[in-house]
Amino acid sequence: MRNALVRRTVLAASAVSLALLATACGSDKADTKADAKPSAPASSPAAPAVKGKTDAEATALVVTQADLPDQIVSAEGAAKAATESAGATVDKAECKPLMQAQSGQKVGTATGIGRTTTKAKPKEAAADASPEDKLKAGLEALGATQTLVSVGSYDAKGAEEAFAALKTAAAACSGGYTVTEGGEKVKYLDVKPGAAVTAGDEAAAFTLTMDLDDGEKSANHFVIVRKGNALATFYAFGVTAEQPKTVIDAQVKKLG
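Request: output the structure for the sequence above.
Response:
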């Protein structure tokens, strides 16, 4: 999801929540003598390098509504957000991979990418619920964690290189960075290690603190998981965002 949109979404949700509460080497030459021993059989040819998938093929690897019945899944919103954030810039060059992954852009040498967004389905209050229970249900729906899921496909060792680049960027940008998108600046105060994730061939998790102005902050979650030559990234945000374990598990399962 676009960085600026994330910030506006969290700000709006926080404001409404407060108002309501107030009321991832050659061989040797062959011996030509008759009694020479037979030469050793030629070694097997090297296995062909793994080829990456196209955008359409990568999209087929992304979770859908059928994979996440407890979530609201929308591929259209993710595609629109990625298009609108294509011109975003970051104040520190070393942080560019993070910015790209956060907004659903291709990281490194990806040959194709697929995206979608998920949001936990709100629990509706019963028709005869008290005003307090209805208020609670409304606040929970408003603050539900939203996640931008992206799956990039790569040739050869491209996914491993992209995974390493994102880890390096997270370490280099631990002191924060600023993204400019559509004339609006979004400041991240820090990047810290997140709750450990065990999935795929390798995985890493981080927590990014977004500055909402007026002293308010929002903790967003960023998880990267590599499975073979596919790299899945998860960027989760919201008023009280949580690491999207259900979404991560479903996506990794779909990658095989």
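The longest strand covers residues 217-227.
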